[in-house]
Amino acid sequence: MTVIVRYAPSPTGRLHLGNARPAVLNWLFAQRQGGQFVLRLDDTDTARSTEEFAQGIETDLAWLGIVPDRKARQSDRFASYDAARDRLIAMGRLYPAYETADELDRKRKRARALGKPPVYDRAALSLTQEDKARLEAEGRKPHWRFRLDGRPVKFLDLIKGEQTVNTASMSDPVLIREDGTYLYTLPSVVDDIEMGITHVIRGEDHVSNTGTQIEIFEALGGPVPVFAHHNLLTDSEGQGFSKRLGSLSLAQLRAEGYEPLAVAIMAAITGTSLPVEPYASLADIAEKLDFSMISHGSARFDVAELAGLNARIVHALDFAAVQDRLGAKGEGISEPVWLALRENIARFPQFLPLYEEIFVSATPLIADEDRDFIATARDLLPPEPWDGDTWGAWTGAIKAATGRKGKALFLPLRRALTGRDEGPELRALLPLLGRKASLDRLS
């Protein structure tokens, strides 16, 4: 059996770190199993779904390194949903209900007042054809509910283990709105059946939905996929991410210069027993991450942890990996320059400004009390050629001539040569600056 997973976002906003988590976990599982990854845009909400958001989702996934094997849109598949609707109606599993939102709210409040669960009472099942005709003559349009079996639905969750959802304690779910549009539930099941989805990997907030959906799978005669419900990614305060609020959108993280691999690692590894550390690729994570490693507790994301991870990844990038990214502005920048500066940036876009500051527009900083010291240092500057040992030989001579050591020796030299109090190791930087530029800055 070929493993087939699906990631099914709604194009009603940009992807954020929270909904990148199921995308990455589905992708890693498909890679580990040698399976297929389907991107299915759940765009039946025509009022909020936009083409801009749809394209944005594909852009964000590609940035993470996720390239779907297949793509589909629910808006192209209404004929399949209509056929399933008609089958369920004929079977007596889908029935019309005419209560307004206010009437349903009053029913729930009465049930609570009586100490009963606020479950729909199935009053619509008692309506006669005359009752329905009268209600429709009044201008009411039905919404359509799926009649649950009302039984314990058991399934083995790949992450949470044995699960039981008792649909007897649930209201018959509305599958079709009054205006004839579909809610998520029915199209999702129909698509999973027709697309041959073998595994549904999604957030733990869908566990109760799974009981409902399994009954719909069975009613339609389709194979029930294997389910895995992972913990949800939250912010540092335990709050969920929101597309509406733009919480840590992938577009924002990309614009701020974070490495896609760092973001993917955080989306996948947070809330697992694996350490948050650099991995060579998504394939490398796929080899190591097993669902047994996913915690049953919270998966709290820390921006500082992402920043630290991102810096470690950047610091390990070799020159071949960044040459194209430097573009035209990086012409003339050599591998030794990249190696000398990379440890001093946390995100790649910080490199060119740092290069410009140190090699092009540096303004030497020489305090009045250090002028004699700097003049001595200038006089002791050795002739070229220079290499990695030049810095040590030069500062050794300065120390012998002036008696300075430690910070009093090194900081004035750094300020004069780079215009900064901190920065790249001068042992590597000095040969790159060269003797002429160094003499100019020490003047």
Automatic annotation (TrEMBL):
<keyword id="KW-0648">Protein biosynthesis</keyword>
<keyword id="KW-0963">Cytoplasm</keyword>
<dbReference type="Pfam" id="PF19269">
    <property type="entry name" value="Anticodon_2"/>
</dbReference>
<dbReference type="GO" id="GO:0004818">
    <property type="term" value="F:glutamate-tRNA ligase activity"/>
</dbReference>
<keyword id="KW-0547">Nucleotide-binding</keyword>
<keyword id="KW-0030">Aminoacyl-tRNA synthetase</keyword>
<comment type="function">
    <text>Catalyzes the attachment of glutamate to tRNA(Glu) in a two-step reaction: glutamate is first activated by ATP to form Glu-AMP and then transferred to the acceptor end of tRNA(Glu).</text>
</comment>
<feature type="short sequence motif" description="'KMSKS' region">
    <location>
        <begin position="240"/>
        <end position="244"/>
    </location>
</feature>
<dbReference type="InterPro" id="IPR001412">
    <property type="entry name" value="aa-tRNA-synth_I_CS"/>
</dbReference>
<feature type="short sequence motif" description="'HIGH' region">
    <location>
        <begin position="9"/>
        <end position="19"/>
    </location>
</feature>
<feature type="binding site">
    <location>
        <position position="243"/>
    </location>
    <ligand>
        <name>ATP</name>
    </ligand>
</feature>
<dbReference type="InterPro" id="IPR000924">
    <property type="entry name" value="Glu/Gln-tRNA-synth"/>
</dbReference>
<dbReference type="InterPro" id="IPR020058">
    <property type="entry name" value="Glu/Gln-tRNA-synth_Ib_cat-dom"/>
</dbReference>
<dbReference type="GO" id="GO:0005737">
    <property type="term" value="C:cytoplasm"/>
</dbReference>
<dbReference type="GO" id="GO:0000049">
    <property type="term" value="F:tRNA binding"/>
</dbReference>
<dbReference type="InterPro" id="IPR008925">
    <property type="entry name" value="aa_tRNA-synth_I_cd-bd_sf"/>
</dbReference>
<keyword id="KW-0067">ATP-binding</keyword>
<comment type="subunit">
    <text>Monomer.</text>
</comment>
<feature type="domain" description="Aminoacyl-tRNA synthetase class I anticodon-binding">
    <location>
        <begin position="363"/>
        <end position="442"/>
    </location>
</feature>
<dbReference type="InterPro" id="IPR045462">
    <property type="entry name" value="aa-tRNA-synth_I_cd-bd"/>
</dbReference>
<dbReference type="InterPro" id="IPR004527">
    <property type="entry name" value="Glu-tRNA-ligase_bac/mito"/>
</dbReference>
<dbReference type="GO" id="GO:0005524">
    <property type="term" value="F:ATP binding"/>
</dbReference>
<protein>
    <recommendedName>
        <fullName>Glutamate--tRNA ligase</fullName>
        <ecNumber>6.1.1.17</ecNumber>
    </recommendedName>
</protein>
<dbReference type="Pfam" id="PF00749">
    <property type="entry name" value="tRNA-synt_1c"/>
</dbReference>
<dbReference type="GO" id="GO:0006424">
    <property type="term" value="P:glutamyl-tRNA aminoacylation"/>
</dbReference>
<comment type="similarity">
    <text>Belongs to the class-I aminoacyl-tRNA synthetase family. Glutamate--tRNA ligase type 1 subfamily.</text>
</comment>
<feature type="domain" description="Glutamyl/glutaminyl-tRNA synthetase class Ib catalytic">
    <location>
        <begin position="3"/>
        <end position="301"/>
    </location>
</feature>
<keyword id="KW-0436">Ligase</keyword>
<dbReference type="InterPro" id="IPR020751">
    <property type="entry name" value="aa-tRNA-synth_I_codon-bd_sub2"/>
</dbReference>
<dbReference type="InterPro" id="IPR049940">
    <property type="entry name" value="GluQ/Sye"/>
</dbReference>
<dbReference type="InterPro" id="IPR014729">
    <property type="entry name" value="Rossmann-like_a/b/a_fold"/>
</dbReference>
